[in-house]
Each structure stands twice: as structure tokens, then as C-alpha cells.
Amino acid sequence: MTALLERPRTHDAVRDLDRAARRVLLTNWRGHATVPAARLYPHQWSWDSAFIAIGLRHLSPVRAQRELESLLGAQWRDGRVPQIVFDPHVPDDAYFPGPSFWRSARAPGAPGVPTSGIVQPPAHALAAWAVHQADPAASRGRGFLARVYPRLVAWHRYLTTRRNLTGNGLMSVVHPWESGLDNSPAWDVPLARITPVPGTEFTRRDLNHAAAGERPTDTDYGRYVRLARDYRDAGYADSLGVHAFAVEDPLCNALLAAGEHALASMAAELGLDGERHRSAADRLTENLTTMLYDHAGGVFFPRDAHSGRMLRSYSIGGLMPLIVPGLPVASELVGTALGDRFRLRDACPLPSYDLSADDHDPGRYWRGPGWVNTSWLFWHGLRLHGEQALADDLRDRLIDRVRDAGFREYFDPLTGTGHGTDGFGWTAALVLDLLRTP
Question: Can 182 be counted among the known catalytic residues?
Fold first, then answer.
């Protein structure tokens, strides 16, 4: 195991934080997978499991492998990895929308376990390669990569084919929940086209565990339900005709490109030719930079697949392509992060939305607060592109923030006040990784 981060004056506090993070992951463990939070999110979530596996690899590489194997075991025949894998031992009404809403069993090619029909950002190849590297001997002994590699290839193929809705080589998200940045202001324009389902037609379970002022509005939730219901009723078919909301998202495409580099490494480990993955990564990087990067703004913007228009909102997703190896505009992204919109040197975690915007809300979900996972991705990108001093400073401040406020779901990026649920899985897991990465 890599040694804990050593900071002499806070050595005992760091040890206490490490033990507390372990307790969170143990509490949230369900024998085959880790739930994000025991009360608010009682099932397995897709990109949560990727981040959780990255932290678990420091404690038990085999358990980290099982985390990803459990998720990929619920993969659909078309290659999609679902946003949620439902635990059949949890009551149907514990979370909305639950399995009775999604009706995955009626969909062609769905797995034998109940799942949602939408997806989440493709962080899984990065996680799988990191997990393998934590203990290559154990990974080889269990045949971990041999099992997950073909599933990850099928997952990326689904995104680059079925979700290439415009034909321009970029994948689209078809629901705000798929972006991971659920109610970001980046989605306000295309969401405005969607007629919300009346609140009388559904019951929100999230408000039983979190304050209404920290969650999406009822109107936005009604739009989310409308989009999910329409997708379900279309048999989860993918086309612009089906999806009233379709956006080419920088975060998802960046993870896809970075994931192709990870798949190339896996292919080499398995004695296969990884050239197709390197070529795919190059194409995605070029398309991402050519089509979504705004030189004047120094940031990536999403693009509405229906109108072709850029969605000019300075969300954290616009900085996430820093995780892509060889990104030609990496230095410009770092400059934007250092500016007034994100204030890299003092805001922590990095704000999910422009600090200088009039509608910045530091307490409402993805409309302003900072999340540890996106800051972890940016930290990873800083290290990748040689910004070690900035990376070290961000790491130290993230650790301090969580030590002071706890393993919260998200935080006020300036005051550090914790928001959302507590005992949050990826916060704990990624703190473990931050503590152990030199």
C-alpha cells in the first residue's frame, strides 16, 4: 500500500481521516457493490462505482475489481452500462424513479437484474486500468482484465455508434442525469423546450433526505421524468427523433477519449493490438477540441445536437477535458481555472458553475457547489499536464476541506459548508486516493 500523505503538523488528523473514509466505504458496502449513500442513494450508481473502485484499490484491489464486475454484469446487450443497478432487496419505493418506472425487464437486450435505461459518464475504463495497476498479480490471477476489457469495449462502442446522434464523431447525452451534472445551468436552454410532468404524477424521494433548497426544483424534476418516460416508452431506442434533449457534452466525451487510452493499455497487457484504441482516442480528442472548444472563452462548451448551437454556460464540465492525454489546449484550460470564474487557487472543491455568474447558487446541487469527483478529475489532469505544484495545492485543500466538513456529497466552494447527504461514497474513496498518491 502506498504510504499516506505525510504532513507533520496534521499527521494524526490525516490518519483519523483515513480511518473515517474506510468506515464510510464499509458502511456503504453491500457485499458485491458500494452504494453512494445508504439513505438517499440505496442502489449501485454507474460512475459512482468507477470512482469508488479507484479508492477501494488502495484497501482491497480484489474488492475494487468486484465493484466494477458487479456493475458491468448488468450491461445491456447493446453495450450500454446503466446509470443504476437496482438492489432487489431494497423496496421499490425507496428511490424514485425506481425499477417499476424504468421497466427494464420489458426492454430488448436488458440484463436479468432491474436497471435504469439511461447511462452516466464513461469513467469505467480509467477506473479498471487503475485497479489493475494497484495489484497486477491479483488482477492476472483472477482474470480481471480478460473479463472486463470486452465489456468496456462494447460500452465505448455503444457510445461512439448509437450515441453518435449527429454523425460528427461525438457522443450525446440524452438526459441531464446522464451528464453526471444533473441540473447544471448548462442544460437550461435545451430543457426549456421540455414540458414538465405535473408534480402530482410522481413522488420525489430525495426530499426525504435533503433540503429542497439543495436539490433540483419540482419543475426541473418534472422535465427529467418526462424525458425518462419518453425514452422508456420508445423502447430505449436512440435517435434524434426520440430524444427531445440531446447534447454533445465535453465531460462525457473527454472521459471517453481518456478511456480509450486506458483500453489501449489494457489491450497491451492482454497481448492484443491497442492501435484501434489509440486511433479512437486521437479522433475523439480532435473532434472534441475542434467542435466544442471556445478559444475566446478558454473553455469547452456543450453543443445542442438539435440546433447545433453551443450552450455557453461556464460549468465545471467545460474544464474536464484536461484529463485527456495530449490535449492541445491544456494550458488555456488551466488559465481559465485560475481566473475569476473558478478561482482554482482558493475555491475548493472547484465550483460546479461560474462563481462570477449572477445565478451562481453555492448550495443547490450542480448550480454552484463543488464536488470532490470533478476536482479529483481536474487534479488528475493537472498532474497529467505537468502542473504538479497546482495539483499538490488542490490535493491538500481538498483533504482539508473534507476533514473539516465531513464526507459530504458537495460543498460551498468558498466557505466549505457541506451540503447534500453525508457519508458519501466517492468523497470517501477519492480522499483515500488523494492521501495515497505522491
Answer: yes
